């Protein structure tokens, strides 16, 4: 088992995994290092993050990205030291392949203070960096009151030239972040209804229809101003709650309405 190997052997093996990474290969040594949340591993990873070799910097960042299990407070071990190092390196790192993993690490650690630096990379020329920005933003924004610059960056990424980036950004907008303006989201999904990518098209069309259904179900039960503010949060909650109406209680005190929403969600095509 990789987890029982000596640290030096694990590091050498993980370096080869990073060098050969094609996005699909198993990386048992890297995973073993991430699971060994000790001060020794943390310190070695920190040293790698500033190494002259690009592959070792990437290895260090990827170890720190998922080092240890989440704690009772929702965060991982060494979080404060990790995010401080990641933010410092983000300002200095010249290699886009390492930058993408720094952005990802900040997202995994939910370092909201890094939001401005990550938002600034939404227009980065390297597609890998933009992809990780789209994936990281849901962990960095205030999901109830999304920062305007972050909302603008997400909407821009929904129109990225890369289909995977468009999909990830649209997923964030429609399934993860409820605090976006519903009119702006509606305009976005209407514009993406004829997107070149089938998955993006389907998600856009489905979300436009979902906005209309939720608005109709809320109509007459919730006053219009609050109704519009509730549409996004309700759809995000439904995406995660699925068939559990109790999980809507914090948003909707009307249990019959919550049941109708859940039944509709469960029975949609």
Automatic annotation (TrEMBL):
SUPFAM superfamilies according to UniProt: ARM repeat
One Pfam family recorded for the sequence: HEAT_2
Classification via InterPro entries: ARM-like (IPR011989), ARM-type_fold (IPR016024)
Gene3D superfamilies named in the record: Leucine-rich Repeat Variant (1.25.10.10)
Protein name: HEAT repeat-containing protein
Organism: Actinoplanes derwentensis
